[in-house]
Amino acid sequence: MTKFIAVAPKIASSYQLLSLLSYVRANHNEIKATYVFLDPYWHANQIPSRYTNYCEKYNVIFVKTAGALPNSKAIKEAGCKLLRFYVNNVSLKSVLLRRQDRVVLIADGLGTYVNCASKINAVTRERGKPTLNEKRKIFNYMLMSNVAERFSSVHSYMIFDKASLKLDKSFVEQFKISMTELRCSKDDELVNHLIFISQPLVKLGVLTEERYLELLKHLEQRAREKRLAFLVKPHPAEDVDWYFANNFSALDFDGVIEEFGVNNPRNEFISFLSSALLTLPYLTESTVYRLPLPEFERNIVLSSAQRELLSRVQPLYLKSFND
């Protein structure tokens, strides 16, 4: 049987890397080697070395530049087929012009399920209002990506299928194996905490710092009422010292929250719009809440797919805070 050599030209987060690894492990009989270029988005050390070391056990090879990835000619000369990983979207041009025998699409979380309007809204929050020409480019890219994914042989490997939004139980099984294998046996299990999975919404202008601080105090009070300790899991783009300066405890954990949740299930989790809301309810037995706020309706545009996926998560309304 002719085997594949897989290449991933732009992996930017731990979740993306572990999704890729789960696919590689599940299909190890077909894949000879996997070459990955890490392109960090938030900061250079976002992906812990223990994750890359873990991947190397499954013959994942990390290259220092995208140009060092093997090309289709070299792979063919080695007697193998080319498998290429894409994140979130596949461009029609790439599918039509590149000589690749298999295309695998992995997710980056909630952002995978955007439409044109929600994508433009996300770009506006992160970089400022796009020009008309930039909006046209986003529209054309989204349109061509949808065509490529629907009318070509793209293998989707993510927790929810992009088109049907159906749960992929095989992804859940394989991803959970990755989480359990990563756990160190010496780790003590943390129990009886309400863990708030934060996002940089102050930095993005969705919430004021004063409003955010008030919210944290309400969540801390809610935890006390349930006889739980309160912990914050800061986003990689946030300054953890800010939480300490405001007398909040931060979770000291370098990995994805899914790994922590699988190996520490006797806790409760809550977040605004974190992608963990899509994964934790299916990977763990923990109670998971989403936290609706009026600011989201005013400042954040979500696609119908994103709204549907979030609606599957139990909401926790802080009436005293929202009044």
UniProtKB/TrEMBL annotation:
InterPro entries: A-2_8-polyST (IPR010866). Pfam families: A-2_8-polyST. This is Glycosyltransferase family 52. It comes from Pseudidiomarina maritima. The lineage of its organism: Bacteria, Pseudomonadati, Pseudomonadota, Gammaproteobacteria, Alteromonadales.
